[in-house]
Amino acid sequence: MGTRARLVLLALLCLLPSRASADITAFLGSTPSPANRAVKGFAAGAGLIIIAFEFEYANAGEDPVSSAPALWTGMGNVLLQTPVAIAGIQPYVTTGGGLYRERLGERQETSFGVNAGGGVKVSVAGPLRLRLDYRVFTLSGDPLHGRVHRIYAGANLKF
Question: What value does the CA radius of gyration of the chain take, rounded to a whole number of Å?
Answer without folding.
Answer: 19
